[in-house]
Amino acid sequence: MKSKNILKTLGPGLLWAGAAVGVSHLVQSTRAGANFGFYFIWILLLANFLKYPSFEFGPRYATSTGKTLVQGYSKIGKWAVILYIILTISTMFAIQAAVTVVTAGLVGNIFNLSISINTISAIILVVTMVILIIGKYAILDKLIKFIIIILSITTIFAVIKSFSLGYNPNPEFAKNFDFTKSLDIAFLIAFIGWMPAPLDISIWHSFWSVAKQKDTGYKPKLKESLFDFNVGYIGTIILALGFLSLGALVMYGSGEKFSPKGIAFSGQLIKMFTSSTGAWAYWIIAIAALTTMFSTTTTCLDAYSRVLTPSIKLIKNNETKKNTGSISIFWMTIVVTGSLALLFFFSSSMKFMVDLATTISFVTAPFFAILNYMVVTDKHMPVKARPKLWLKIHAWIGIIFLSAFSIFYIFWKLTIF
After folding, report:
1. pLDDT in tens, 74-91
2. Prediction pTM value
3. Of 260, 265, 318, 366, which has the maximum CB count within 10 A?
């Protein structure tokens, strides 16, 4: 693969990473390490292994057909698009609220703001909406490459420094994961739900891939597109392991617990980094963490407006571009309003909002996994681009596991209430 083509192709995979590296990494991976040491490493790797095919099918379909996964759903049947819209609307407010409240916590802590975290969240969402309306895809594509590089460097440096200081958890405070404890099971579900990201990001990725082709005028080969995706996917795994390691090395067995409040949690997160790297790195780490979460907030808001508008047009058998911009702004407004309502009226606790969003994503994951598999194995998919037998088997292993675990979780929730 030519280096020139690689540079042209890179973008959607890094956008995917920008959406993935956020709550699942800064919050959930760090909490996993802080609560249970290195125990969750095998769960982290298993979750990434099981979800890989479902995420990979996004760029596979978009590159091979020049269409998005939602357009692929429409070829299966209108019911598939309707199901996708229902799943999206049922999860988007909780997901957007979760990523925004984490971003707001960082803003409040870094700039020492005295206003409420909900007010900060409202300001962030309005500013993000304005940026998207003005800059659209181009600003996302340029911004995310810089953000991922900065975060990766600071995280790797902090982990190496922390390992050099040793791993000595106090047995008095060290806690082991217990499958018989409801709180541990609840955290496990929430952790898997967004590790490495909610599965609906696979649909977003297909939209970004199509948008990238239109913006650059370059249609990548399937191998190039999958390379871009794999760079982002492997990168998110490495970063997740890094954040989990930091939580384990710095917090596990220390007697200190992460606060459920966004601003306090953000302060603890940055302190965890600076305790390893030194106070001199405070602003580098703070800016890296803040820009990472801001990019996640931005990509989520961009994605919902980007996918819902054409999805509804497909139901109406109308794929014209008439008034597409105004309809996208309408959906942005809906997402912002619904997310703020969730934050203002239900809970201002970052922990509650994150666990709610990640748990919902976990329960809905099998539906997205099945739809994506149906699309890439459908008769409308070019034969040469269809997944090989090993990838089909891999996908089915993931579908069976996610479905079984979701059913178990639903029955478990019903029995404890």
Report:
1. 999 999 999 999 999 988
2. 0.88
3. 265
